[in-house]
Write a structure and sequence with these properties.
It is a single chain. The chain has 689 residues and is of the alpha/beta class. The chain contains 17 helices and 27 strands. A hairpin with a 4-residue loop joins strand 16 (374-378) and strand 17 (383-389). Helix 8 packs across helix 14 (586-596) and helix 8 packs across helix 15 (598-608). The radius of gyration is 28 Å and the shape is globular. The two termini are 52 Å apart. 50% of the residues are buried.
Length: 689
């Protein structure tokens, strides 16, 4: 009987594999190509390889300490230069004794994840929620008994026409000293026209605000000047909750299965938001108390956890939100160190699985402002879909899972230097060429090997796996049904158990890196893209349309998908490729709009109540659409617009089509004769990127 091996999963990379019991965590990481820092060569001297135990509900693995060996002399007596943090283990010393999830924190990684969220540069009308007003206040007078506050409010009314306001208690605590320091001239901050939230001596300007987009994988923050709308600094980090589960439902499961789990997840994300505020103001050399306003978007589970609300009921039918309205609280309520009067505004949610991030994307992209039928998709572990035009909008969420972000893929990982992000395969020879994150050269260009010498080619990220599968389909290696077929054309198609696989890259022997596209990889991508397409088709049925006029791909991942390959794979419906584009971080842009404009807040609050919500889990027709969408690009729907740009003749069926229908995906593009790798007829110059 073969000896039992252990399953080990590393986060946040998503790399996983099986190792022998007693293997050190560091050796397991090296064997799986996981990025763990170690300067001392595993001798327990440097302390750079610190890791923690995580958990995964989907893998059935908890964070029990029995999964690693007990600390021995190397850890107990550790006195290295980098202190051993509480609850951490040295990867070079801890040995695996059971299946385990190992979290590698950012400070233990050589290569940091590339956080690609950024708000697009757009023209946002500035209608500040917080306004500063300079006042000249009458000094106190023995002949007129009026408090300092009364005279400030009189000046505010007389000089600015603002009356009937409330005053924060912390303003009262400092008001008298500030008045005298300013020699009876002060600047006050008035929030929403009804509350004095700050006071400074003399003339004060430059109020700041922060817009946050809290995603399940990454968190983006943008520091803005509230008066001008200018973006002064941006920051992006990994969501620390990922160590408790790669996808949203895993985190809900963590809350359900662990006493105090909600508090752990809430504390983790709140600490990150507070640290980001500090980083943002430090970038521009301003103090934290310059921040007077914060706006935030996130999916429903992130929304609830940031606000300290239980996500439990979002994990069970009928997926009820605690609240779907906009939330207005002081920033200090979530542990954020800013100005004492700083307010936090959280955009409203649309539905149980369509959150404030979708509301932000709608506000940014404005499908309700145009007669064209727009499809807006925020691609992530849970795809949020909005379809419609002026007069009617529908929204749904579809469970795509983490495959698009590199998880559940044999050589998959999140976007980081050294990860393959672009792939082209020669139609005749099946020889590949690719680009990796952090290097401008293609793999077949001179100097590529020297350029990647520092990082190596360490895996394939989401955009890379999508292009690889789509390219394999265009060459006929992957059939329309998603089967890898060995046609004998190339030694790159190799046997892999009872199926076949495609060898994308084999690195130097000393590195031991071998990146394959396996049958399971193709199937994982098919399942993810079918869930996305099925959700879209469901909304199209409800809207009564069989086409869309334009498609916008939002989110950090959506912004890095080549629209052509998204259509070849069948992630999205057929559409004129010239009208398919990236929306950037639309949710983050929506958060910025809400930060800078009170009228934008009014607009989205009025709109979300009119959006029709479709629950894919119970909607009739979803399963049928899902099965049909497993085909590449699609089992029953023609891709005529795409066929004018791309030669689809290489996509062939491995057998009789379902229902005896001839596969339409075999249609040849008119005049398409391109055979070279990546030669997408009429494409946007990807060959030269």
């Amino acid at each position: 009987m073969a000896a039992r091996t252990l399953q080990v999963v590393f986060t946040p990379s998503g790399r996983r594999g099986r190792v022998e019991p007693g293997t050190t965590v560091l050796d397991a990481a090296r064997g799986l190509g996981v990025d763990v820092d170690s300067v001392c060569g595993g001798r327990g001297l440097c302390g750079r390889c610190q890791v923690t135990l995580g958990s995964s509900a989907s893998e059935g693995i908890d964070s029990g300490g029995h999964r690693l060996s007990l600390p021995e002399a190397q850890e107990v007596g550790y006195r290295g230069r980098r202190p051993l943090r509480a609850g951490h283990r040295l990867a070079c010393a801890a040995r695996l004794q059971d299946d385990a999830v190992i979290d590698v924190p950012p400070y233990s990684q050589v290569r940091r994840q590339v956080v690609r969220k950024r708000a697009e540069v757009v023209d946002i009308p500035v209608d500040p929620v917080v306004r500063l007003h300079y006042l000249e206040v009458e000094p106190p007078d023995m002949h007129r008994q009026a408090s300092d506050l009364s005279r400030v409010l009189e000046a505010l009314d007389r000089q600015w026409g603002i009356a009937g306001v409330e005053v924060d208690h912390h303003v009262l605590q400092v008001l008298q000293e500030v008045l005298r320091a300013g020699q009876w001239a002060v600047t006050v901050a008035v929030h929403d026209g009804d509350t004095v939230t700050g006071v400074w001596p003399g003339f004060h300007d430059g109020p700041l605000g922060v817009a946050f987009d809290v995603g399940s994988t990454t968190v983006a923050g943008h520091l803005c000047d509230l008066s001008t709308g200018a973006v002064l600094a941006s920051s992006g980090v990994m969501n620390p909750q990922i160590r408790y589960g790669e996808d949203l439902m895993s985190r809900v499961s963590y809350v359900m299965m662990n006493e105090g789990g909600q508090e752990v997840l809430t504390s983790a994300i709140r600490s990150t938001l507070d640290e980001m505020v500090g980083d943002l103001v430090e970038q521009v050399g301003r103090p934290r108390d310059s921040v007077l306003e914060v706006a935030l978007v996130g999916n429903p589970i992130m929304h609830h956890l940031v606000l300290g609300l239980s996500p439990y009921h979002l994990g069970v039918a009928p997926f009820a939100l605690a609240t779907d309205g906009a939330v207005r609280i002081t920033a200090s309520k979530i542990g954020m160190e800013a100005h004492p009067g700083a307010r936090l505004y959280v955009l409203p949610c649309v539905a149980g699985h369509v959150g404030a991030d979708a509301a932000g994307a709608i506000l940014s992209e404005g499908p309700h402002r145009s007669p064209a039928i727009q499809l807006l998709v925020d691609v992530g572990t849970n795809a949020e879909i909005v379809l419609g035009s002026a007069g009617r909008l529908l929204a749904a969420s579809s469970p795509t899972g983490p495959a698009f972000e590199g998880a559940e893929i044999s050589s998959g990982q999140r976007a980081a230097p050294g990860a393959i992000e672009r792939v082209r395969i020669d139609r005749m020879t099946l020889e590949p060429r690719f680009k990796v994150i952090g290097v401008d050269l293609w793999s077949d260009q001179e100097g590529f090997e020297d350029a990647v010498a520092g990082t190596g080619v360490i895996g394939i990220c989401g955009s890379g796996i999508i292009e690889a599968v789509a390219e394999l389909a265009l060459t006929g290696v992957v059939s329309a049904e998603g089967l890898i077929r060995d046609s004998g054309r190339s030694e790159r198609v190799v046997a892999d158990g009872r199926s076949a696989a495609y060898l994308l890259y084999e690195g130097p022997a000393e590195r031991g890196s071998r990146i394959m596209i396996t049958q399971n990889d193709v199937r994982a991508i098919q399942l993810a893209k079918a869930a996305l397409q099925a959700g879209v088709r469901l909304l199209m049925d409800r809207l009564g349309v069989d086409r869309v006029d334009e498609i916008r791909l939002a989110g950090a991942f959506g912004s890095h998908i080549d629209p052509i390959y998204a259509m070849v794979l069948g992630m999205i419906p057929d559409c004129d490729p010239d009208r398919v584009s990236a929306a950037g971080n639309a949710a983050g842009t929506g958060a910025m709009m809400a930060l800078l404009s009170g009228s934008a807040r009014d607009e989205i609050e009025a709109l979300v109540g009119e959006v029709e919500k479709i629950e894919t889990a119970v909607a009739a027709g979803f399963q049928r659409h899902f099965v049909e969408a497993m085909g590449i690009p699609h089992a029953t729907v023609a891709y005529d617009h795409l066929a004018r740009k791309v030669d689809l003749s290489g996509i062939v069926s491995s057998g009789p089509a379902s229902g005896g229908r001839r596969r339409r995906t075999r249609r040849r593009a008119s005049g398409a004769t391109a055979r070279r790798s990546g030669a997408l007829v009429g494409s946007c110059g990807e060959e030269d990127r």
